[in-house]
Amino acid sequence: MKPLITFVLLSLCLLPIIFVLADSRSFSIDYKNNCFRKDGKPFQYISGSIHYSRIPREYWKDRLLKMYMTGLNAIQVYVPWNFHETLQGVFNFAGDRDLEYFLNLANQTGLLVILRPGPYICAEWEMGGLPAWLLQKPNIILRSADTEYLKATSVWFGVLLTKMRPWLYQNGGNIISVQVENEYGSYFACDYNYMRHLHNLFRLFLGEDVILFTTDGNTDKEMICGTLEGLYATIDFGTDTNITAAFIRQRRFEPKGPLVNSEFYTGWLDHWGDKHASVDTVKVSKMLGEMLSMGASVNMYMFEGGTNFGYWNGADHDTRFRSVVTSYDYNAPLSEAGDPTDKLLAIRDVIKNFRDIPVGPMPPATPKFAYGFVTLQKVWTFHIAKLICKISCPYKPSYSVPILCYVNCVQYYGSMLYRTTLPRNVPEPTPLISPLNGIHDRAYVSVNGVYKGLMERDTALVMNVTGQQGDQLDIIVENMGRVNFGSYINDNKGLLGNLILGNDVLTDWSIYPLDIDTAVANGWLQAGHSGSGMEAGDGPMIYSGTLKSTGLAWDTFVKLNGWTKVRCIFLYYEEYLVFVIQETVFVQPKTAAAAKQCGRINFNIIFTKRLQIPHSFAFSNTKHTMILLNSSELAVIFNEPLYNFKYR
Q1: Within 13 Å and on the Cβ side, how many CA atoms surround 517?
Q2: So where's the catalytic machinery, residue-wise (predicted)?
């Protein structure tokens, strides 16, 4: 019996120790002393935003380590709903979408997490992270107490927040706080019932102990509509703002507790047509030091921006529609390719004054390699748009009056073909008009397979057409990214209203979803549909080429001098990547690694209007950003060598 008694006594002695260890993990707000408390001790976070959805999984660890070595003790993470539930009811948390793997890497690195699960996130991301299938519900009011919207968000959070609960700091994970909605005060609805619903939903799935907070812009209107009792109110602002005035505004809505700037802007986004945005390094580092001296917790937005792979770029609509470019470099401390910049070193020097910096060298820039030139062959024009649809369209064509938009045809991204015939002879140039600005977003018009011109949302709503009665009129409409901010986020794509030719309303449309990506992945390029060489011509086309391996699996940039708006699909094994390009775009090593193993990478180039047709393009170890100014003019506005950075 003696050994049994000993075992029981030992067990009884160990139980209190286990409970003490569990109870010792806490993260809370000390309203009396105006600070956070981590495990009972005052805590100030110095955080940076990073978007796992814009960085290849293979590089998550590298980026997180660089953030940790800069001196950050936390990261801020958006969760794009549409990235994980692109199709309704189909949830994807694998591969580059493996959020829990990302959280675990951050935990292993020593970084706490501020989670921003939305449901709306903005982030210059397609439709602000909301899935396009929501628009299948007629007249749905997004970001409101609309019944259909609440039903969808409740299902989504039932999946997501259940996964997140074990990752809360109190439960042994590294999530210290969770944001409810995102800058809701900037939205027209100002629906407190909606915010209460989200508050209750978050508490249901995450419990009572986690800090729930809001973030809003630096105006009274935004703070009034974006805040709610029970949610800690934080503010966001950049280098053009008076710090004292901004925090006084936060204090009006949150009299006690820590000062928090949830989005301190280290840079800014780029739209097509804009010069590359930048924010002065001296201003960023100086203002960061001032806020930290006040005891404020600060998140730097962004710390690394990354790339809008695939169709995930967003858009803005203030006075007109403006699409966000592929690069989300953001002039951040880590470049689009994840390389340390002078801004990062300046920020690290500031942080040294407030906390100990980890010992050891900053991880270097990833190696870059110029793989050389690739010769291209034309494989597609207007003539075989219907052929692509036969190969790849998941649905039969729709025949519609009035015209249907993308979501009605169950295609959310890419392009669609609208086809009808001319109702009468049009011997003289006759206006083809979109009277209600119904082109969302860019339309390429052809008659009998001959390209006639371009129509575009807000800017080019009229063009002239000639032809004979019965001639085939094709209009390929491109989705350039759904609006991610403001009151226009119900952003349907396609032809949203009738087109008028002279005095005739065009009818009897056949509508084909053009799933070009799937066609390419299914071997369409190898199926013998090639065209004849590189002859000149206008309109959207596809070109194909092969990059032979050098045996090196390094990062690279696709460089397209002389081209304009381009979409690239890199095909290897059964995987492919899609980019929309300015002049150069970052290519991840996964693609280069495939070249090393397979000996080559097959890819195609889809481009719209251009200055001239080059016979090739290059892979470069230098980033040159070329932003499209209009349909026929280009300007180089950024040129940055990525391999000669001096470390200290």
Answers
A1: 18
A2: 183, 263
